[in-house]
What we know:
There is one protein chain. Helices cover about 30% and strands about 25% of the residues. By secondary structure, it is α/β, with parallel strands linked by helices. Among the domains are: about 10-215 and about 220-255, ANL, N-terminal domain (Rossmann fold); about 435-535, ANL, C-terminal domain (GMP Synthetase, Chain A, domain 3, 2-Layer Sandwich), CATH 3.30.300. The protein is globular and about 70 Å long. The model has no long low-confidence stretch (mean pLDDT about 95). It binds adenosine monophosphate (AMP). Adenosine monophosphate (AMP) binds near residues 185, 326, 417 and 429.
Amino acid sequence: xxxxxxxxxxxxxxxxxxxxxxxxxxxxxxxxxxxxxxxxxxxxxxxxxxxxxxxxxxxxxxxxxxxxxxxxxxxxxxxxxxxxxxxxxxxxxxxxxxxxxxxxxxxxxxxxxxxxxxxxxxxxxxxxxxxxxxxxxxxxxxxxxxxxxxxxxxxxxxxxxxxxxxxxxxxxxxxxxxxxxxxxxxxxxxxxxxxxxxxxxxxxxxxxxxxxxxxxxxxxxxxxxxxxxxxxxxxxxxxxxxxxxxxxxxxxxxxxxxxxxxxxxxxxxxxxxxxxxxxxxxxxxxxxxxxxxxxxxxxxxxxxxxxxxxxxxxxxxxxxxxxxxxxxxxxxxxxxxxxxxxxxxxxxxxxxxxxxxxxxxxxxxxxxxxxxxxxxxxxxxxxxxxxxxxxxxxxxxxxxxxxxxxxxxxxxxxxxxxxxxxxxxxxxxxxxxxxxxxxxxxxxxxxxxxxxxxxxxxxxxxxxxxxxxxxxxxxxxxxxxxxxxxxxxxxxxxxxxxxxxxxxxxxxxxxxxxxxxxxxxxxxxxxxxxxxxxxxxxxxxxxxx
Length: 545
Ligand code: AMP
């Protein structure tokens, strides 16, 4: 017997029409190179309809990939909805990749039209000769004439919109139709394409509104600092538009002072970005001068949030950092660390220990962890295993990449993250499989060491990498960036003494080096591949000669 419920497709059109009907008065604010831009969801909707006609005029058909090469701002949001709701595929290109990688993914995705910020034109000009499929470039800027550029043929976004017809009827789409494509910021080999369906984005947007998840709601003023080219700004712009949250976009203004200013002036209540961003903002807030009292929640993830960061934001400014974990392959949210009701009576120490973990699976996501023999590890908070996930917004294959089948073996996504899962279901990322330090046949978690070192009051950032060792196979090396005021004043002995009572002796790094900066990936995570290259010939103390 079958259920007797309507066959109603879960598409992004529903999100857009809901915004249009209910939230026309709510505001979208963008900080562009020439100043602030403000308008309402009603204005937004009218322009999305015009933009849909523009796409049609440029020859975009159902299933075609349309690229965006832009910072976070309202025009980018218009593209999020116009491209997907007309049945084309939104391809958000990471502006911080190396030019060769940008050319590779534009060719691999076969984008036919590319929308770009005028300020980023020079990057595209440099690779124009290599682009095989782009038929139109559209420049996003204030004027109605395209900028001086060698890109051809080039149009002005504002001119195209002004000329377009104001009405558009959305075509009927299937919920399994492709809506977006993002490439992983993978550290090995070519980036891999993840294709999101309408259904995945719909369900993910809904999940983010859960109060035990992120709690995206009409009441919130949301500032996605996480780039709109990094897994659709973690899906926040879609979810926020669906429920009519005021959205605040920083454009290219990514300096900590500028973001603190935006939080203050726009009364942001919920902001999202990688931990390194909040480490920078913490420095600015400590100097004083900004009123960030409106901000009650920060969503952070993408790499481990140091517990010391959670504690500082909560104690100093009453701001709760919600630690979450996800992947490009997961639209991206998988787990969120929120306390269960009965944990609120636990000691502060215990509560921070739980919140510093990556959290439990959000409704819709299923997870488990397996050991090297493929056996599920117990949920005891101690036994490490590789994390496997499955669910309605998790990729089942990469785009045009038959060689990665083992990554999706058995109907699970094999994440490459090593975790423990405790009896309450909270996962803790111990490491990436390839970042673990293997010492004498045992694993040392580089992430645990890093987060502990970053709790030292004189430390700004720290990353731990494995150095080959003749006896132990590998040993940990700590690379530490002191806070500016302590440069030259922090010693290896101080760091090791600080770690001594927190770890078994054999876990302690064999050496500590002080460096000016930890190299970062295009999305702001520690880039251990580059760090490993920098220290490729490093000799640990006692191994000289
Ligand atoms: P990406 O696809 O670029 O978003 O990268 C996904 C990877 O980032 C995951 O597989 C993890 O290794 C890492 N990651 C994401 N969130 C966290 C987190 N909260 N803590 C530690 N690692 C994280």
